[in-house]
Amino acid sequence: MAYSAVGQFDKTLLEQLKKEGCVLGCEGSGVIEDVGPGMDGALLKGRKVAFLGDAWSEYAVKNINELIFLDEDVDLKQAAGAFVNPMSALCLRKIVKDKGCTTCLFDGASSHLGKLFIQLC
Question: Where are the beta strands (DSSP E) in the chain?
């Protein structure tokens, strides 16, 4: 575990989920330290990745199919937010296009999500 984004979901559910023993952190980034049986450790160990869930833990166990593999030169701090906002922006753009809209009013355009959405549009 290298970095984790702090999302509104985490803030909203912080107290409740802590009581239930859940690990918070919607998304994060890190380096693969070990792999399970049947995986190519030589190929995977040391690779930078971004992932969803359990990002506020010291370590996280993830399925290889749920990772974004990052280039070596990618900053892990920036990669900690590689899922939620980018995927949300892509979905918003798809909704706008599918509805045939030529304009869109986006409240919160100065947010990270808003900036990504504007770049995509």
Answer: 3-4, 27-31, 48-52, 68-69
Contact 89, 120 (CB under 8 A): yes
Structure tokens at 12: 């909203």
Edge-first strand listing for the sheet containing 3-4: 3-4, 27-31, 48-52, 68-69
- List Cβ neighbours of 116 (8 Å cut-off, separation of 6 or more): 85, 86, 89
Average pLDDT, the chain: 89
Name the amino acid, one letter, at 39.
Answer: M
pLDDT digits (tens, 9 = 90+) for 107-118: 887 888 899 999
